[in-house]
Amino acid sequence: MNLNKDRLQAFYQVAIDKNFHKAADNLFITQSALSQRVMKLEQEIEATLIIRGNNGITLTSAGAFLFDYVRNIESLEIEVLNRIAGYSRANGHGNLRIAAYSSILRSVVMPALAPLIESSNGVHVEFFSRELRDLLPMLKSGEVDFIILDHLLEQNKLVCRKIGEESLIHIKSKRKRSKEAFLDHDSEDKTTFQFFKYQNLKQDNIQRRFYNDIYGIIDGVKLGAGQAIVSKHLISNSDDIEVVPYNNKVSNTVYLYYHEHRFLTDFHQRIIKTIIERSKIFLNPEINK
């Protein structure tokens, strides 16, 4: 039995977009046509692939297995076409979809990859800034190819590569009198509590305000709206911020994750190598001085 390519592509797009309407738009077909293709594919292989529920679309175990297959076929096809067309390793085509938490994406991942992206032709790039809790589901669902986390995962079928250390520091405004409150992303952000735990200091009476984005947090500190625990590399060149000294150094190890059984094109392998080699430049800006 040969699987119909159009039906596979329809299923794959729905699995990525988690929405039939969006997937239909991306494939330039009607939603009815898309639904028909997915339904016929399920009939063809005699298995349910997609479940529609109140919380959106989820894949069955059979759907997840087929999704991995189609994803690898897509990557392999790109690689074959690149090799046939004779693209060099420095100028390959490919897709890059990577998600990370905000303090790492803009200040480390994007600048680390900038030279590679600039030198590559025909590269489709998508960067996603998300909360830590949202990153693993994005990788599992196939929405992205790589994620960056600040902790180890006990997950089968994922490859974990260390890319560096992210030092955490306590900052306040140098120009204005800072409020006693600490600025965090949201109520689930435990960075401030964890920092003071490592310092063996009480955490019971910490007042918090929520600024959603790391760069909003830093701006809030500069304005005197509060203090914050942030990554050291984010404020290395700021004259408006004062660092509060502590005896104990606190840091998070930063990891790159991707699927173990994912077929990696030459372009993807260069992405991994570049992130690992160049991230330390931006995590430790003092090495460039």
Description:
- Pfam families: HTH_1, LysR_substrate.
- This is LysR family transcriptional regulator.
- This protein is of the alpha/beta class.
- The protein folds into three domains: 5-66, Arc Repressor Mutant, subunit A (Orthogonal Bundle), CATH 1.10.10.10; 88-164 and 254-288, D-Maltodextrin-Binding Protein, domain 2; 166-252, Periplasmic binding protein-like II (D-Maltodextrin-Binding Protein, domain 2, 3-Layer(aba) Sandwich).
- It has helices at residues 5-17, 20-27, 31-45, 61-85, 102-119, 132-141, 191-198, 214-222, 266-283, and strands at 50-53, 56-59, 94-100, 123-129, 146-149, 158-173, 182-184, 208-210, 228-231, 241-244, 250-259.
- The chain is elongated, with a radius of gyration of 22 Å.
Task: Please specify the SSE layout and strand pairing.
Elements: H1 5-17, H2 20-27, H3 31-45, E1 50-53, E2 56-59, H4 61-85, E3 94-100, H5 102-119, E4 123-129, H6 132-141, E5 146-149, E6 158-173, E7 182-184, H7 191-198, E8 208-210, H8 214-222, E9 228-231, E10 241-244, E11 250-259, H9 266-283
Parallel strand pairs: 3-4, 3-5, 7-8
Antiparallel strand pairs: 1-2, 5-11, 6-9, 6-10, 6-11
Shape label: elongated
Spatial separation of the terminal alpha carbons: 62 Å
Gyration radius from CA atoms, angstroms? 22 Å
The fourth-level CATH homologous superfamily of the largest domain is Periplasmic binding protein-like II
Order of SSEs: HHHEEHEHEHEEEHEHEEEH
What's the helix count?
9
- Stated plainly, the CATH topology of the largest domain is called D-Maltodextrin-Binding Protein, domain 2
Low-confidence stretches: none
Average pLDDT, all residues: 87
Q: Helix share of residues?
A: 40-55%
